[in-house]
Design brief:
By secondary structure, the chain is α+β, with helices and mostly antiparallel strands. It contains 5 helices and 18 strands.
Length: 363
């Protein structure tokens, strides 16, 4: 019996070994093909026409950057009265180091850091084919009244510069867009310095976005602040400005156009504008209150926008320049209208290092 078993094993062993040898390579081939396919997709994101765009020749980059941050919020009643609020502009400065499209760094706020709560996060990913913007802003107690319009002869600067701690704003959003002419038009050349635009080109852009807004206004504090400066003005304030909290979501589809103008050797001026048709839906404190189908109304559609402007000198090794990004959002209801815009302006200088041994780009 033992001998028979040994004979069977002797006969079957080559088949078992062959089966194992066949299985292992097929698994390896499967994972290798999957990995190679993923890499090819990633490479396609930055696949360019080299007669228009010079690709990056270095692995790493380092930058010194100064960032100017601004924001404004205006509220208008149905009778036409409006008040504009904005915090003091902030300036940050710091070094950054990057690899591919990933950047790390630390920026120091050059202004006095108070105990007021304020969080800001702006993250943009630029590839030749698509882009992604994520932003988070949460601020309170550091706003000032910038102007007022009471639909009468009251001067607009009557309350200009008055501190107001009764307003808090929170905005969280994500925008994504696709660039059809990505082989000739390069967003990274203007906003992440990872390529060089060598011939002028433009492209349409299409995308979408999702944002959540929250606005809290203490009307009693507003009336007190105005009364302390001008009691007559406080008496004229429209009741349409009397709200405590606004929360709404914004789902939008966008379209726009961008153009990169190479007006001299190593110089680039980039301008783009996207207009979004956004559906705004008011929400309460509970997610269960959100229902598009139940409360759908064509009056909840509003126009938003994103604008970008960049100027850069780049010889592929060294670069310097600046760019600005501004977001604008509108929200209309029967009793009032709000408009919020925010953004930043960046000025920088930097250089690339760690030259690549080989770099293959197909046209």
């Amino acid at each position: 019996m033992v001998r028979l078993w040994l004979i069977l094993m002797t006969c079957l062993m080559p088949a078992i070994v062959l089966a194992e040898n066949d299985t292992i390579p097929s698994r390896k081939n499967f994972f290798k093909k999957t990995w190679d396919g993923a890499l090819n997709i990633i490479k396609e994101f930055n696949n360019v026409d080299t007669s228009y765009i010079e690709p990056q020749h270095y692995h790493f980059t380092t930058t010194l950057m100064s960032t100017y941050i601004f924001e404004s919020y205006s509220i208008r009643s149905k009778n036409g009265q409006s008040i504009n609020f904005s915090p003091e502009a902030r300036v940050k400065f710091g070094p950054y180091i990057g690899w591919s499209f990933l950047f790390w760094g630390y920026a120091v706020d050059l202004a006095y850091i108070s105990a007021n709560k304020k969080r800001e996060l702006d993250l943009s990913v630029y590839t030749s084919m698509f882009g992604l913007d994520f932003f988070l802003r949460n601020s309170e107690k550091d706003y000032r009244i910038r102007s007022i319009d009471l639909n009468d002869d009251t001067p607009a600067d009557t309350l200009s510069g008055i501190p107001f701690d009764g307003l808090s704003v929170s905005i969280t959003g994500l925008n994504a867009y696709y660039i059809p002419n990505h082989r000739k038009f390069s967003y990274p050349a203007a906003f992440s310095q990872s390529t060089c635009q060598r011939r002028s080109a433009g492209s349409f852009m299409f995308g979408g976005g999702y944002t959540r807004h929250s606005l809290n206004l203490d009307y009693d504090k507003l009336k007190t602040a105005v009364s302390n400066v001008s009691p007559q003005t406080a008496e004229k304030l429209d009741s349409g400005l009397m709200f405590k909290n606004i929360k709404y979501t914004d789902i939008a589809l966008s379209a726009g156009y961008g153009y990169n103008w190479v007006f001299s050797t190593n110089w680039l001026l980039s301008v783009s504008m996207s207009v979004a048709l956004g559906y705004k839906h008011s929400t309460g404190n509970r997610w269960a209150d959100f229902s598009l189908l139940r409360d759908f109304s064509f009056t909840n559609f509003n126009i938003d926008g994103v604008g970008r402007l960049g100027l850069i000198w780049n010889n592929s090794k060294w670069y310097f320049g600046g760019y600005g990004i501004i977001h604008s959002y509108n929200y209309r209801k029967s009793q009032f209208h709000t408009n919020n815009y925010f953004g930043n302006v960046n000025v920088y200088i930097g250089f690339n290092f760690g030259r690549k041994k080989s770099h293959r780009i197909t046209k």
